[in-house]
Amino acid sequence: MTDAVAILVVDDNPPMARTMADILVAKGYRVQAVCSGREALDIMERERVDILLMDVIMPEMDGVVLNRRAKEIRPRIFSVFMTAYSADDLIQQGIKEGVSTVLPKPVDIDFLLSLISAADVSYFHPVDRRGHASDRGNS
Amino acid sequence: MPRKQVEQDVELPAVLSDENPNPVLRAKKNGVLLYANPASKPLLEHWGCNVNEVLPASWKKRITATINNLTPSKVEEVCGKRVFSIQVVPCRDVYCVYLFGQDVTERKQAEQALLNSEERFRSLYENSTVGLYRTTPDGCILMANPTLVRMLGYLTWEELKARNLEKDGFEHAYPRTQFLDAIEKDGEIYGLDADWERRDGTRIFVRESARAIRDAGGKTLFYDGVVEDITERKQAEKALRESEMRFAAIFHANPGAVALTRVSDNQLIDVNKAWLEVTGYSREEAIGHTAFELNLWIDAAQRDQLIEMIRTQGKGHGEVQLRHKSGEVQALLMSAELLELSGERYLLTMAQDITERKRIDLEIYQRNQELALLNAINSAANRGEDLGGIINIIANGTKNLIPNSGVILSLVNASGDRLVSQNLGLSSSAQARIEKHVGRPIPNFSHDLYKIPHYQKVKESRKGLLLTEKKAIDEFFCAYIEATSWPGKTRQAVKKLLPALEKIIGLRSVLVVPLISGDEMIGILETASSNVFGEVHLHRLEVLAAQVTTVIQRKQAEEALRESEKLLRKIAANYPNSYLSIIEKDMTISFSSGQEFNKQGLDPNKFFGLTLEQVFGEKAPMIRENYRKAFGGSEVEFKMFFNDQHQLYRVLPLPDDDGKIERILAVIENITERKQAEEALRVLSSRQEALLAAVPDIVMEVDNRKVYTWANPAGLEFFGPEVLGREAADYFEGEQQTYRSVKPLFNGDENTIYVESWQRRKDGQKRLLAWWCRTLKDAQGNVIGALSSARDITEQRKAEENLNRLYERFALATQTAQMGVWDWDISNNILVWDDQMYALYGVKKEDFGGAYESWLNGLHPDDRARSDELEKQALRGEREYDAEFRVVWPDGSIHILKANGHVFFGEDGKPLRMLGVNYDITERKQAEEALHNYSGRLEEMVAERTRELRDTQEQLVRQEKLAVLGHLAGGVGHELRNPLAVINNAVYYLKLIQPEADEKVKEYLGLIEKETHTAEKIITDLLDFSRVKSVDREPISAAELANRVLERFPAPENVRVQLKFTTSLPKVFADPRQMDQVLGNLVVNACQAMPKGGTLTFSAVKKGGKVAIAVKDSGEGILPENMGKLFEPLFTTKPKGIGLGLAVCKKLIEANDGRIEVQSEAGKGSTFTLHLPTCEEKA
Predict the structure, then answer these.
(1) Burial group, residue B695, by CB count within 10 angstroms (0-12, 13-18, 19+)
(2) Do A106 and B983 make contact, defined as CB atoms within 8 angstroms?
């Protein structure tokens, strides 16, 4: 499982973080959920994180800053905003700084899942995937 | 993962548990205490704070600072008797701090105790009143406390340290070698007295104790010592010894008698030599005995008094008498005080022998008495006291001089062979005692001189006689009694008393002294006494006798004078209305008489001998001054008010035969009545004067030369005091005809002449005076001048001028305003008009009747009654006259006039006069009329406009409210999205992990999912409506828009879609996404309006510079009453939906500079048209 896609969910609303994490775990991903940008960065300092699902408006550290820091640690991280608000400025800024997409809350989970699997294929393991696919095909 | 869990896992080490015996606390940045273990209880109690409460302000501040600095800190907190050391540690992540406490009370106490004991030692060392030192056997000074340094006179310890005991040495009386020997032998020295040399060479006495400190081997390391400065004690001891010696010297060498008596038993403890001399006892006899035993005190009361003084004042002082051993009485001046010696109380008495001083005092006293007596006799004689009175004075006076029982003065006749008068010289007490023994009153008596041999003897020897032998006295009294004029019985009775005379009146000596005048004896002075007389007393009486002789001679001469005076007095006594007095050169009155004394009930004789001061009091100096002139030889006359009388003094010198003026005569006439008459006259004239002074008018008098000779106060006030003596013209201001005007007065004209003249007031101001002038003539009828009164009329004149000007202005005003003025004399019914009035009424002056009715007739017939009533009301005083009426001119034209008037009422309240104005208001009235008509119409217009405005206003308010509501709803919507998102996730998860779930469960999960989406849709609408979206406009064709919308919102199958687009239609300039939303909305609505199917027509045409895009349905159409509300938010006809769709559409279209319209026909459907700007238009 170590090479499974590692997802980090960050939302200051703990049930949101938790339900989202549970769904993704149930879908077979390696998932951690935290409630603040600082915690998220601590984790990222320690271990690999491929996808960062984050709320935009959070106390102390908002999504834009978190994304910026995350990119410093892992420039290729795939980051997604989830927002209940139309905080246009922050969203525009996030996109400018490399946020992959913005999902309005309530999140269309099917869409999210497809997005992640797409990213898994195209973004993280473009080469491996091919090999892997042949491996899988072979087995 | 729940956040709380995260914190605990990461932050809470094992040590932070409830079991920790030391206090552990956690607090938030804002000072709220989050956690506290049980050991923290004392702290919490101290702070009065519990978990979830805010810590004390100081802690809150400290916590905030700790978090801000991210630096731990340590503080000590004292909780009652406990002290806690508290470490404050910040936790970076959770924005709170940990407080780790430790009870350090015991440590603190130990520290404090140590500190205290050190402090005590230090304090003892530094502040000790005794010197402390440590020295070595070889003489080094290792240590000396400040007291010792000071004691030895060194400035600093360093200075002392430099000294070496072996080399320099300190001791005088006690060499160091001895000290060393002693201390080495015994290990210590205690209480060694020594004298040391100080730095400056002076010595101090010290008491020293020292101890040798030795090492284990017994070798002396150093000496520790204590040094006490006993210099003062030594000095005190010395002083005491000296003092004792001094006391002894004073005690014994004192010339006064000094004795020391022990209070407890009154025994004499010590006495000095003088004391032994005063008392006559020997030392042995006195010491150990009491004053009582020695019988020293004569008067115990004197002693008690002295003791009482000591008791109350601490010291006693006074004259006492003590008995000498021989019995002789000694007068002493004694002072005594209490001493306390060694706890025992002693009385120290010092006495001085004043026996001799007493005698001298008495002598001086008697000499003084003698002088006083002589003085008294002289002044009595001068006062005119008769001989009897003088003898009384002598009798009383001599008692102080010679202790006697009375003085008897006997006078002999001219030939010296008979007694002619005698006073009763016995003292009253002596006489009473004699009378008591005789048993009857003793009458006055006289002696036959020849029968008393003693008198004979005195006459011949011309010397006084002193009898002290009892036999001689008895003989004297026998002869005396024999020679008295008493009846035989009395004489016998008195004679019987003779043997007992000494007992009765205690006679022990008699003095008889002759009164010698020239060669003649004119009388005898005698006295007797219970005391024994000596030569001294005889001599005194002789001196007295000489004085008495002089007085008697004078008296006898006066007697002779008296006769001639009688006559004079008689004349004087009848001097009418006058007091007569003769005044001596010493300004005493020697004679007074006159009728006035009697009239006033005064005794003229009482004035005899009085001085001017005594008679006239404060007036005396003036009298004296005048009398002195008389003594100078002139006759003086003056007046004075004295004793409520007006008196005329005429003073004549009375020269004696030699022409010397020794006395003067004053004839004082009471002229009060005459004065009163004069006074009455004066009052009369002063009343006139007062009148002139009181009138406010100026009153001036001039003489013929027109020079001011008199002025009343007002006149002086006006012109100034220097006016008198100056000519009237000096005060004229400007050229004047005044002199010419008043000329007739000086020719004798008796009429009052009025003239006005500008004159200069004393302050320099120019004032207008109105003068009334009259001629003044003397008794002969000659003109002597003129008397004028004047009044300052400057202000009055100015007021008149102002009034005139005012009147002119008024006339100008009425004329300019074309205002007519009328004046109606009511009682006479005369109505006077000015010229303007005639013009206003269109009549000629000559045609006007000049009465009230004339005016009334000129009015329009319809206005007469009302105008008349208004006039009547004004006359009754009910209101000011204010009327409008029409006037019909003779030419038939009508003019509207306005009238105002004021009624003047008399004292009785009757209207006297009415004054008023009229003016033409025809034009104004017409203008008003026109305005009134116009304003009627205007009001309607305004009302209409107001309605419109109100509608708009209401709409605005509603929109405003909606905007607020929308904003609020938007905010709520956002917040709702978060829980919705969680619900959504949760449902998704449940469905995901339970694919085999019960059908019912699946159905319900489906319900939750569906309703979640509905809720989300509502929120989206709300947000769309409330959010101020940025508009991102771009050119887009209507066809493209239609296609996109129909693609996204496909119509149901039963709806046919028709597209009608004009060719060469310009592109619209709008936000495509917003247009999608609007058109999508319209399409969905259209489809919903045709539940049974129909046609949806999508069209676009160019219209008025814009592109009109229409969405048409073939549904039921919209009810007319709903047409107006279609675009209002929250309006809906659908069973579901919150009615924001069309409102959002309208808003979005308007945001794109467009406009939305609706048309509807019942049964035929509705058309919604969007008018959007084109790119061309934009360009």
Answers:
(1) middle
(2) yes
